[in-house]
Design a protein that fits this description.
Blueprint (H helix, E strand, L loop, with lengths): L3 H16 L20 E10 L5 E10 L2 E6 L9 E4 L4 E4 L1 E6 L40 H4 L4 H8 L3 E6 L6 E4 L1 E4 L5 H4 E3 L4 E4 L13 H18 L8 H8 L5 E4 L3 H13 L4 E4 L8 H6 L3 E5 L11 H6 L2 H9 L3 H7 L4 E4 L8 H10 L4 H6 L3 H6 L16 E4 L10 E6 L2 E4 L9 E7 L2 E8 L6 E4 L7 E7 L2 E7 L14 E8 L2 E6 L2 E5 L35 E10 L6 E10 L2 E6 L9 E4 L4 E2 L3 E6 L27 H8 L2 E6 L7 E4 L1 E4 L6 H4 L6 E6 L19 H26 L3 H5 L8 H10 L3 E7 L2 H13 L6 E4 L7 H7 L2 E4 L14
Parallel strand pairs: 1-4, 1-5, 6-7, 11-12, 12-13, 13-14, 14-15, 27-30, 27-31, 32-33, 36-37, 37-38, 38-39
Antiparallel strand pairs: 1-2, 2-3, 5-16, 7-9, 8-11, 9-10, 16-17, 17-18, 19-20, 19-26, 20-21, 22-23, 23-24, 24-25, 27-28, 28-29, 33-35, 34-36
Helix pairs in contact: 5-6, 17-19, 17-20
């Protein structure tokens, strides 16, 4: 007699095993019975892509538990294995997602910023954490990771089987966890609980005002790294974030950037502290691909897609920016451009989501990315970035993470049938009863060349020859298949259509066993058709700089001779008529008449033209990615970190004769950032714009801006002109004390130093000392005579001079005192009366 309850238990156990139901943890309390067997599964007769370089045809992959037991191309497998025929299917390594926040808690919304609001100056985070809320180095993704079945399913649907997950919040974001996209237990899903440390040039959800600028974020990261070094030797405090910074040094460092300029900045910043970044880019690297490639950094690239600029009428057409049109045209070519440059990169979905990832990946291939590189960038390369040899390839001992597709991955119409994670199969579109591709159908001794499509788990069939009007209807239910052939009506045949041919059969090990009718269906080798129009893989021209005035190719001449010009020397020689000027490697080599033409010189006929020194703009805010930060003393920020060499205003200033400029911090604070002295060169990198060995300058500011005259809510010191003076005196006094502390420490013997904590290195105090020691010069935003007098007096009390008063609209009232102090003036030609403190101008 059959024991029905027992039979039910056995059936349930089999169903649980086949469906990939959650397995018990070895440490868990067992409430019932356990199946401790580790079954073996063999996937046979598949096309197996071991990696981006090696493919096996008609091969078998053997799985036991969560790993690959064997791979062979003669379809051998253990006798005890459960055999599954994967004829016509392709098996690829599971994709590795290099940037995700799967399983992370919801983040609060990022706060907005307004210059007129009440400031938040101190940290609001409770606990022994860093004094700046943007530093979240102690955050560990593994501590809060929870399995998200819905998100796992969405990622598996496009082939991802593992992911690097972290919380994208803050300038220092803590560490990420490498996880398998499985649905059973967090303890089994986490591969590595501390895989990489993450940074960005974005403070995230921090409500603190500082930093608010790109250069402020760089300064904060620099100072935090220095603080972490100091923290190791001090015993004054506990800072969990600084402790984490030191602990995380051994991990790969991944930094998120907002544009290609920040990608170069990451290299600059990393070089200062011997950090090799993996850079998560914004998808715009093609705009300066050569410089990005020369930075020699590995990249994480979103498959970014842009919509065509919208327009409704002729006015919209007129207003569409050429730069936007070029971005729309070139964005799909970004991976191809970087591949041509030899850059190592991983690909991730666009920020809009993973739903269209495979479509976008194929689009990148259509736009010139090689299929080999495309596969490597989602398998082998990201696995190497996270230092995990069990991911990214199919080989013995690797995780049984696989993507099963109905056709070659990059073929049109190919679908993800299954995604295997750690040996468990997850159905996506489902295994097709019959594989995609061309077949020879033989029925009643007649041959039919047909194409079978198994899209979305449904089968359709059509003639290979478009002129063949025969119709085919096919349906399947598990292994049972029915096929109806309706012959085409013969031309001139007055009779009704011929009787349809009804066929039935069973699918057994990938072959048809006829049940009704004498018929066979044999797979054919697909021959690539060359009559289809292929997408152009020629990358369109990329202007440099990336603007309407960019150059298709730049011209460089080591030797230039300007002949027969009227030369304004600005020297004792005065104005010279009919004079030649010889330039070698950017410097004037000779001035005279009838100079001989050097070999390979680029000659310019200056007849009837005037040649003058280039105009120097002492006070400019062009060519910067950001201008203002908000700390009362922002002397640690460097405008050189925010130079934007693609700003169209460089071109426009050159058109007006300006060839050099001082790029100043804004006037939001009494002590602003360090200036960038630049050559206005069109078509170079940000670093190439900086003038070599230029003196250091810094922006100070007086008046209404720094004391927040426009805000009734401000609580930031100073709020009066008296307070502004005290800011300077306080910061210079602190700098002197800082200098003495270091001097006393440096006088100690080596043995004494080992017993003494070195002073904390402070980038702001280092800069203030440079001013006192006449190594950095002050350019000060100024209007009112009382404050002009005040700052000169403060400088004299600390034994240095102010270099320049800019604006200086009441300078005429104190010109004698300025001369006595030795300060210069840089003023407007005609701009005045635009706020209260300039009414007298």
């Amino acid at each position: 007699m059959i024991n029905l309850p027992k039979l039910g238990l056995i059936a349930a156990a089999i169903m649980a095993s086949q469906s990939g139901q959650a397995s018990e943890l070895p440490t868990a309390v067992t409430n019932g019975i356990q199946d401790l067997r580790s079954p073996i599964t063999a996937l046979t007769h598949a096309t197996i892509h071991l990696d981006d370089k090696t493919t096996l045809e008609d091969a078998t992959l053997v799985i036991q538990g969560d790993q690959i037991l064997a791979i062979n191309d003669d379809n051998r497998h253990p006798e005890s294995a459960q055999v599954k025929d994967y004829s016509g299917l392709h098996i690829y390594p599971g994709f590795v997602l290099m940037s995700s926040r799967i399983g992370m808690p919801e983040m609060p919304k990022k706060p907005g910023f307004s210059w007129g609001k009440k400031e938040i100056i101190q940290s609001v985070k409770k606990g022994a954490y860093n004094s700046n809320d943007a530093i979240k180095a102690s955050f560990n993704a593994a501590d809060v990771y929870t399995i998200d079945n819905k998100s796992n399913k969405a990622l598996r649907a496009v082939g991802f089987t593992s992911a690097l997950t972290h919380q994208p919040d803050g300038a220092m974001r803590g560490t990420s966890a490498l996880v398998l996209l499985r649905d059973d237990h967090e303890q089994k899903a986490i591969i590595n609980e501390r895989t990489a440390q993450h940074l960005s040039f974005d403070k995230g959800t921090s409500t603190m005002d500082y930093p608010v600028s790109l250069m402020g974020h760089v300064a904060l990261i620099r100072q935090t790294w220095l603080d972490a070094e100091w923290y190791q030797q001090q015993n004054e405090l506990i800072d969990l974030d600084l402790a984490a910074v030191n602990e995380n040094k051994r991990l790969p460092s991944i930094i998120a950037t907002g544009n290609w300029q920040e990608t170069l900045l990451a290299k600059k910043m990393g070089s200062e502290f011997d950090v090799d970044f993996i850079v998560q880019t914004a998808g715009d690297s093609y705009q300066n691909a050569t410089s990005v490639a020369q930075s020699d950094q590995s990249l994480i690239i979103p498959l970014k897609q842009m919509k065509a600029p919208a327009f409704k009428d002729d006015l919209d057409v007129f207003n569409i920016d050429y730069k936007d049109l070029k971005a729309w045209e070139l964005t799909p070519y970004n991976p191809a451009v970087l591949e041509q440059q030899g850059v190592t990169f991983a690909l991730i979905p666009d920020e809009k989501g993973e739903k269209n990832f495979l479509k976008d990946l194929r689009n990148a291939v259509k736009h010139g990315l090689s299929k080999q590189q495309a596969l490597a960038s989602i398998t082998r390369i990201p696995a190497k970035m996270v230092n995990n040899h069990r991911l990214g390839t199919l080989r013995k001992g690797a995780y049984a993470n696989m993507v099963v597709t109905t056709g070659a991955l990059f073929d049109k119409g190919s679908e993800v049938a299954e995604t295997w994670v750690a040996g468990e199969a997850h159905t996506v579109s489902g295994l097709p009863p019959i594989a995609h591709g061309p077949y020879l159908l033989t029925a009643d001794n007649e041959s039919h060349e047909v194409e079978v499509n198994s899209k979305g788990g449904k089968i359709s069939i059509k003639p290979q020859d478009k002129d063949n009007k025969t119709t085919y209807k096919i349906a399947s239910d598990h292994d049972f298949i029915t096929l109806t052939i309706q012959p085409a009506k013969e031309e001139g045949d007055e009779k009704d259509d011929a009787e349809p041919i009804q066929l039935m059969g069973l699918i057994n090990q990938g072959e048809i066993q006829a049940l009704k009718g004498n018929w066979t269906l044999e797979k054919q080798t697909k021959v690539a058709k060359d009559n289809k129009t292929q997408a152009s893989k020629t990358i369109p021209s990329i202007p440099s700089p990336f603007s309407a005035y960019g150059l298709s190719e730049s011209q460089h001449h080591d030797v230039v001779l300007i002949q027969n010009a009227t030369v304004w020397t600005n020297e004792d020689e005065g104005i010279l008529q009919g004079t030649d000027v010889l330039i070698r490697k950017g410097k004037i080599a000779a001035v005279g008449t009838s100079l001989s033409v050097p070999k390979n010189a680029h000659v310019i006929d200056g007849t009837g033209m005037h040649l003058t020194s280039g105009i120097v703009d002492e006070h400019a805010h062009i060519a910067l990615l950001s201008v203002n930060d908000v700390a009362v003393n922002s002397s640690m920020v460097r405008m050189g970190d925010a130079v934007n060499s693609h700003d169209v205003n460089i071109y426009r200033n050159l058109a007006g004769g300006v060839t050099a400029a001082q790029l100043l911090h804004g006037s939001a604070n009494p002590i602003g950032g360090q200036s960038a002295l630049v050559k206005l060169k069109w078509g170079v990198t940000p670093e190439e714009m900086l003038i070599d060995d230029a003196d250091g300058f810094i922006k100070f500011a007086l008046g209404e801006n720094v004391k927040r005259s426009s805000s009734n809510e401000s609580i930031r010191y100073p709020l009066t002109r008296m307070g502004v003076e005290q800011v300077y005196r306080d910061q210079f006094s602190r700098a002197k004390a800082y200098e003495k502390a270091w001097s006393d420490y440096n006088k100690l013997s080596n043995s004494q130093k080992k017993k003494t904590t070195a002073p904390r290195k402070d980038l702001a105090m280092d800069t203030m000392l440079e001013i006192i020691n006449k190594e950095r010069f002050v350019s000060c935003h100024s209007y009112v005579q009382s404050e002009i007098n005040m700052l000169m007096k403060v400088a004299e009390d600390f034994d240095f001079n102010i270099n320049t008063f800019t604006h200086i609209l009441e300078g005429y009232k104190v010109a004698d005192k300025m001369k006595a102090h030795g300060v210069g003036g840089s003023t407007f030609s005609d701009w005045w009366a635009y706020k209260w403190e300039v009414n007298y101008a």
